[in-house]
Amino acid sequence: MTCHHVVRPSGTAAGLPAVELRRPHVEPMIYQRDHAQPPATAITHVGGPLWLKLGAAQQGRVRRLYMICTPLIAAVVWLGAARGVRGWGTLGHATVAYVAQNFVEPEVAAWAQGVLNDTSSSYFANIASWADTFRATAAGKWSAPLHFIDAQDSPPTSCNVNFARDCTAAGCSISAVANYTQRVGDGRLTAANTAEALKFLVHFIGDITQPLHDEALDVGGNTITVTFDGFTTDNLHSDWDTFIPQKLIGGSSLADAQAWATTLTTSIKSGAFKALAPGWVAASKLSDPVGSATAWAADANALVCTVVMPNGVAALQQGDLFPTYYNGVVPTVELQIAKGGYRLADWLNKIFAANIAKRGVAGRAPAAGHLPDLSGRDLLPSGPEKSREMLIREAMDGGGCGCSKRSSHDH
Predict the structure, then answer these.
(1) Is residue 92 part of a domain?
(2) By the 8 A CB rule, do 226 and 94 touch?
(3) Structural domain tally of the chain?
(4) What is the CATH number of the domain that holds 202?
(5) Partner of 224 for a Cys bridge, out of 5, 236, 342, 361, CB 3.0 to 4.6 A?
(6) Is residue 370 flagged as an active site residue?
């Protein structure tokens, strides 16, 4: 997330460190920061000044992306569904949300329904992809870096995540989880701010479990062209996001997601995942949101070496990924979706118990003369504003067109 003109916090709720990140609908009196838009750093055209920051190989990939994407931009806008760097697709995110709904405590469910103003049985699923929709707007473009962390490792021989190395000053999924954890538990925010924080948190905890959202190589697989199920212009990232889950489930509706979540929930409660589930949240410590989210990201990133591309990129481009590769990775896709939902529920249960339950669901008004200082620039690394991978994503039509000739109504 982009940080500008912020200072070290004087205090945070429940002793949590805050990571202040640019976000919508922020009240100037409370947050005491400038609201200028982040400086434009997109690669506006091939050969522009930021183009020179890319290596020759990456320049070649971007040129190819432009050649493929340009004719598709109008169609993508019309469809409202570009395939790109968007965590799990709507099916995956909704399934994570439904799994979480099955494991949050009843009082947490009631609180969340109140915050989201949604008492339906899909209160999390209905907003699970809101962050993707927001990101695609002019007002939400700043939030694009928050959906991933670009691990600068070397798969398939070495996979690892290092927050200080991999999270730039623009922010990342780890800093986003830390920031919105602090915000959603702070009763001094407005109802709108709290709802936004919860919607971001639901989405980003899901994003972190998608292995290619924790990897820099080939922009998280976005520039790896593959053939999947007969489609020859797919990219690996989009297949993991959307087309592998949809192939498995046979659809992408909320009903499909709910049915999948029911199956995964049964596996967690009494099936193959029962013995594994406690380990999924063993590193989840509310007192250390950065460390917790880093552990989740590292867990998913390790799968890039062992499952996603164990034999390297070239092996992925030798024939159709269906059915052999598909059959090999489907168990991991289901595992990661289950992890995302279970971790999300556990995290929200912890936030509620530590912060919200103690003051009452209605929250509290700020004391006279005391407004919260929610800045947290100290927790963001002091590296470059944006990574090379971020610049490439921006070149890919505002954050990642995915560049597949296959159309989809899913993200």
Answers:
(1) yes
(2) no
(3) 1
(4) 1.10.575.10
(5) 236
(6) no
Range of the domain at 45: 13-395
Of 398, 134, 115, 95, the closest CA to residue 267 belongs to 95
Residue 135 catalytic?
yes
Residue 45 is among the residues annotated as catalytic for this protein: no
**Can 186 be counted among the known catalytic residues?**
no
Residue 224: pLDDT above 50? yes
Instruction: Determine the 3-state secondary structure of 346 from DSSP.
Output: helix
Classify each residue of 234-271 as buried b or exposed e, where b means 16 or more C-beta atoms within 10 Å of its C-beta.
Answer: bbbbbbbbbbbbbbebeebebebbbbbbeebbebbeee
Query: Is residue 238 over pLDDT 60?
Result: yes
pLDDT value, residue 394? 80
- Residue 304: count of CB within 10 angstroms of its CB: 22
- Catalytic one of 22, 86, 132, 239: 132
Indicate if 34 belongs to the active site: no
For residue 38, the model assigns a pLDDT of 32
Cα of first residue to Cα of last residue in the chain, in angstroms, is 21
What mean pLDDT, rounded, does the chain reach?
79
Which of 33, 61, 86, 147 is labelled catalytic?
A: 147
